[in-house]
Amino acid sequence: MPLSPGESPGLLLWHATLRWQRDLAAVLTPLGLTHVQFVLLACTWWLNSQGEHPNQLALARQAGTDVKMTSQVLRTLEQKGLIERDVDPADTRAKRLRVTDAGADLAPRAVAAVELADARFFQPVPLAEAVPLLRRLAHPEAGTSPSTPRS
């Protein structure tokens, strides 16, 4: 027996995702960033702050993005003066990513704006419930472990 639309987890997730994406676009557009630009800038900034200078593949893995799409978006971020791609001395075919001063100024402001939007969006659900559920949905292959409880 098919579920009614209001009982379909997939359709409900689709509607929630669309609402969340609209909320993020509303806070990122004034900063001159798309959502994927934000994710790649924020991940690069965070990795740089940890002393890492990732290549494109490492950044794509961190962000969960397609490598080719990551390359295209990084080109845009480079054109905007937010990141630089430097030749890796250990492998001249690879480029190491580094946020510029402008990127380092924008990234924490964008992260703060997104975190505020997330807090508003997820306010109806306690974080202690939302985070484990989202972790399980994002990484079902993780199986049962203390950080990813299974019911």
What does this structure look like?
By secondary structure, the protein is mostly helical. Helices cover 60% and strands 10% of the residues. It is built from six helices and two strands; from the N terminus they run ααααββαα. It is globular. The two termini are 25 Å apart.
Helix content: 55-70%
What kind of sheet is the major sheet? Answer: 2 strands, antiparallel
What is the approximate shape?
A: globular
> What structural category characterises the helix and strand content?
mainly alpha
CA radius of gyration is 18 Å
Mean of all residue-level pLDDT scores:
91
The strand order across the widest sheet is 1-2
Cα distance, first to last residue? Answer: 25 Å
> Which residue ranges are poorly predicted, with pLDDT under 50 across at least 5 consecutive positions?
145-151
The total count of strands amounts to 2
Compressed to H and E, one letter per element, the order equals: HHHHEEHH
- Report strand %: 5-15%
Question: With helices defined by DSSP (H or I, 4 residues minimum), what is the helix count?
Answer: 6
